Amino acid sequence: MTSQTDDQIVIMATHGPEDPERATIPFVMALAALASDMTAIIGFQSNGVLLARKDCARHVFAPGFPPLAELMENYLEAGGLLYVCGPCVQSRQLEKDDLIDEAKIVSAATFVVACADAKATLVY
Prior knowledge:
5 strands; five-stranded parallel β-sheet; alpha/beta; Hypothetical Protein Ychn, Chain: A; globular; 4 helices
């Protein structure tokens, strides 16, 4: 039995810099959750892990949205968490040192528990 946390949301980002809008929306939604006093976790899977690379966000711009680097900085300053899929990192031949310091490489089990404990899970 899980202990559902009414104030937690998990947002899975599966698109990287190749799709700026889908890369940006998880941060917009997560910032809204943090502003609503919720705990927010953004999980990166598939090409989404590329967004956790150092300096990647500086190059992602979606029309009509603030720059991704600004959103990511605000998200982290507000206490948002970044979980990155370990196997996805490995399959892209990335190392922990390639990622921003705040990125936590996690296993599938960590994602499953976080999603099970969340009030809602969104996927982009």
